[in-house]
Amino acid sequence: MSLALYMDQHVPLAITEGLRERGVEVLTAHEDKSADWTDPDILQRATELQRVVFTLDDDFLAIAADWLESAREFAGVAYAHQLGITIGQAIRDLELMASVLDPDDMRNRIEFLPYS
Hints:
Strand order of the largest sheet: 2-1-3-4-5
Number of helices: 5
Oligomer: single chain
Number of strands: 5
Number of domains: 1
């Protein structure tokens, strides 16, 4: 099973569209009607759907770290600094992740996408 992604509300639409053009399964917070939810609620929702959250919001790093420390399960977080990655690089990196990792690989894991 390939990795399915859940885009938080701050991810540019161009990244979502580029991933979909490459066959990556993506659901956005806007499509799931959770764009106004708190970050912990979004992480919980993505976990319920067995999707890794992709975010440019460093608040997710603290939330995921807290969940790790308290042994609370989550589907995974992929993070890129909003000023440190281009749209094209995000698409390439996330496409690679989705093709080589499965949900078990990302469970309770925080993955940092490299700076461009």
